[in-house]
Design a protein that fits this description.
alpha+beta; 10 strands; 53% strand; globular
């Protein structure tokens, strides 16, 4: 009888272990993203040291897919650091006056890893796009606006669409992001 109980417990334990391992090895479903808008910001670079820069936004605009707009106002800046592996790390705090008169604060961190083509474009002053780099940000928004209150409640992902660095061609530096709401 004891042997049967041990055998039963062993089989039960092995079956439970197999089930638990099987569940843990399944790839979870990724969240989906919903496009919500863009931000275009004109930039002024101020090197701080060899690997750090303060990037001030001089002006810019926000456009949402539902027709909302906003104008970037001071303060708005990006603290940019190039880490030892050559990846750009950014920390941004930005304010916008929205079309309903409210203020919205966007804060985000991001990382930029240029591929070889992106490095060449940066060195020559050409526009860098999302084919030239992996550049993802994690914006969070805060506002007291009733119209834009939904932005307080979600996580977002930002992706660079274009970057024009300082150059000798007289083109004004800017960055353009696409923003996506994370949906479960």
């Amino acid at each position: 009888m004891k042997i049967l109980i041990k055998l039963f417990l062993t089989i039960t334990f092995m079956a439970m272990l197999k089930l638990s391992l099987a569940d843990n090895h399944k790839s979870p479903k990724a969240p989906t993203l919903e496009f919500v808008g863009t931000m275009k910001a004109y930039l002024e670079f101020a090197p701080i040291s060899k690997d750090k820069s303060l990037v001030t936004v001089t002006r810019g605009e926000i456009k949402t897919v539902d027709g909302g707009t906003g104008e970037i106002v001071a303060p708005c800046a990006d603290w940019l650091y190039v880490n030892p592996t050559g990846v750009f790390e950014q920390m941004v705090l930005c304010t916008a006056k929205m079309d309903d008169g409210s203020l919205m604060v966007a804060k985000y961190e991001g990382k930029v890893k240029l591929n070889e083509k992106g490095q060449e474009k940066m060195a020559s002053g050409q526009i860098i796009n999302n084919n030239d780099a992996i550049w993802i940000t994690t914006p969070q928004f805060q506002t007291t606006s009733e119209k834009y209150s939904w932005m307080n409640d979600y996580m977002f992902v930002g992706r660079v669409m274009e970057l024009q660095m300082p150059n000798e061609n007289g083109k004004e530096p800017y960055v353009k992001y696409a923003w996506f709401k994370v949906i479960n």
